[in-house]
Structure prediction request, 174 residues.
Amino acid sequence: MQTIHLSAPSLVDAEALLAFELANRAFFETHINARPAHYYSLDGVRAAIAQAQQEAAADQAYQHLVRDEAGTLVGRVNLSRVRRAHYHSAELGYRIAQSACGQGYASAAVRLALARAFGELQLLRVEAIARPGNIGSLRVLAHNGFRLFGRSSRSFQLHGEWHDLEHYERHAED
Prediction:
């Protein structure tokens, strides 16, 4: 099990976050759609950090940087689309540097994000989606107690090709 810590992004993280995103851009874009080109600049990352801070202050989303024991940025884990009234839920997302994949960072980061979601944030349900062929992501979800509750057909387009998605959930009492 990897020892990591999560922190909310701040402007002092801008250069490290830009370096992380640039170093992993091609890898990430094999799994998810590309960010807008203007994101990949210091001003773009600073604007994204400011937006993340505003969303956290408004209880809409919580972004976290994942750092290893040495303080190296190895990933991100987010709780987005926070819905309070009648739902008390959020959506989970994560990305780990290509060089850090397969080392337990994603599972550890999700475990810590869930602890925050169900503890401090008092959410009752966290949802996640994954493509059926994304074995690494499916393992992360399984290791963290997520259960499959549905599948949507041809619901995600990546590089002009449509993909099915599997929908997972985890409840606070699980």
